[in-house]
Amino acid sequence: MNDIITPEHLVLDRRAFLAALGVSAAPSVFAQSPNGTTTYEAATSYNNFYEYTVDKAKVKELAQALDTSKWKIEIVGAVKKPRTFTLDEVMRLGAIEQRIYRMRCVEGWSMVIPWNGFSLSKLLDEVEPTKAATHVRFLSVSDEARLNRSSSFWSRPWPVPYVEGLTLAEARHQLTLLTFGMYDKPLAKQSGAPVRVMVPWKYGFKSPKSIARIELVSAQPQSTWMKLGPTEYGFYSNVNPGVPHPRWSQATERLLGVGLLPTRQDTRLWNGYGEVATLYPGDPNKYF
Ligand SMILES: Nc1nc2c(c(=O)[nH]1)N[C@H]1C(S)=C(S)[C@@H](COP(=O)(O)O)O[C@H]1N2
Ligand SMILES: [Mo]
Q: Going by C-beta distance under 8 Å and a sequence separation of 6 or more, which residues neighbour residue 24?
């Protein structure tokens, strides 16, 4: 089953996706979970979006407070052409493709999801990073008024905005997807509407939701998770069954939303996306 999930699945015609905009009541063609694809229902009912809550089942409801109309993405820093794009302007930069990616959360569960978008490199080419740019920093929405920061799970409010980062080479890799939809529909709010990045060979937390700002920078950025747990969450955080989390093994995972019960399966180096090997010369375990 996993072998059919390759980046060659670039099949969706852009018009089909645009036609789907605003037709949110249409039944998902993936409702029956063909080919081991996680159901839409499962993928949009069990979510991590800590700015709202640490309760995976409540995200779906709380995230509806996010206003995604009039969305803008600012791209600044070490670029020749800094620019603020409307969502529509960003979406016109490339043909929307469908890519079925595995997603492996650092907590030990995984899903298989058909995303809609195009390579982030298209957007980066548009703003022309300068020679000084070595890394990319992503900032999720920081409209604090709409965010629930009162989680009792943490002793202090969840830090906003959620920050993630990649090397420029990782960000430019064709697998790194600027994502506007899933299952041929616009992203649900709990899934990171209206735009997120999917980096399928890294743990799920490296795929930031609801992105408002992208910065090209000259040093490795500190992500939210590095700040919160420096001994547990490194900058690279590539999926790697050989490197256990300090508190649990990463050797296997529970695949969710495919059958009635989760399926336990082996976790694969780089989540099975071996083509990223060129980004990591030497021992894969040193990229913490
Ligand atoms: N802004 C933001 N992005 C985020 C998160 C978050 O809490 N806030 N959680 C991350 C984690 S831990 C995972 S596993 C995935 C979950 O994506 P999903 O809810 O669409 O499955 O989103 C990632 N992106
Ligand atoms: Mo995660």
A: 185, 186
